[in-house]
Structure formats: C-alpha cells, structure tokens
Write a structure and sequence with these properties.
It is a single chain. Among the domains are: 52 residues; 76 residues, Alpha-Beta Plaits (2-Layer Sandwich), CATH 3.30.70.3460. The protein is globular. 31% of the residues lie in helices and 12% in strands. By secondary structure, it is of the alpha+beta class.
Amino acid sequence: MHERHSARRGDTTSAPQLPRQDEARLDALDAALINRLQTSIPLQPRPFEQIGKELGCSESLVLLRLRRLLSEGVLSRIGPLFQIERAGGLFVLAAIQVPEAQFEEVTAQLNAIPEVAHNYRRDHALNMWFVLATETPEEISGVCAHIESLTGLQVLAFPKEREYFVGLRLEARPHAWADHDGFEQQQGQGHD
C-alpha cells in the first residue's frame, strides 16, 4: 500500500484547492469517525453503537461509513495493536531497494504475503519499507528468504531492540469539497 495516503499539498494561495484524483474526500462525519477511532474502541458488545451515540448517529451509519472508508482505501484496517512478543510472535521492520521499473510489481507481491503487515515507499536508496509479523521469532528468516526468492531483491531486516510508545494521532479534517449531503444534513434528520 505504498503512498496510499499522500501528505502533499498544493500551493497556499486563497483560491480553493481542487482534490487530486487519489485524495480522500472526507465530510464532517468521516473526519469525526476517523478521529474518534484513533483514541480507543469501547470494549463492549456493540462498540460501534456507542461510537454512533457519541457522534450523534446510528450504529448502522457508523458501520456503513467504515465499510466505505475501508473499500476506498482511506483506512487500511481497523483493529488493535498488540505486543506480539507477549504472545510469542515477532515484529520486524524490513527494507529493500526496489528498481523503479519493478516498484508496482514488488508492491503487489509484498501485499499478497500474509506476514507483511504494511509497506510504504520512501525517498531513499532503500525505497520500500515494511513490517513483518510472525507467530514465532523463528519464522522471520523464512519469510525474508521467501520475499528474496519471490522478488530477487535482498531484504534487510531490523529487529526491534527497544520499544517506544509514540502515541501518534493524525487529525482528519473534512474537506470543503466533500459532499454536503453528509453528516451535517444527516444530523438534523434522525438518520439511520
């Protein structure tokens, strides 16, 4: 999923910016939902019902929006972060140097490997970075060897030496060009 979420911006003049073809168009509910999900998900039988109440909408609308955000690639996944080592597994940061002509092909190859948690492009000699997640530490070398065999490229693996909690949150904001039949209108209609 290289560069699915781009941080590039247009110039900062006062003229309204038009969205790029691949840029997400979030309305107020989309942005509120993304921001809410970055804090926690309630540990209860119907967590999305609770989130809907907090956002002033129904559980079914929350689920509908989440399905759309996932299918459009705005969100890549919704789920917990685990300390995999406590469960006997291992996370490893890895990198490869991919020739530009092969970048899309290698991206597709890595995305098809279940142990590749995510990958992203970097402007560096090592231009593809990814996280490997395995059920046991011993499996990492086999996955790296499989990727090397599949791509013909050397995998550099960087096991975690120390853990840091960063607490990164990326604020989602509604775009001026988002559909205005979204959250603001739906709030007043007792939507479902």
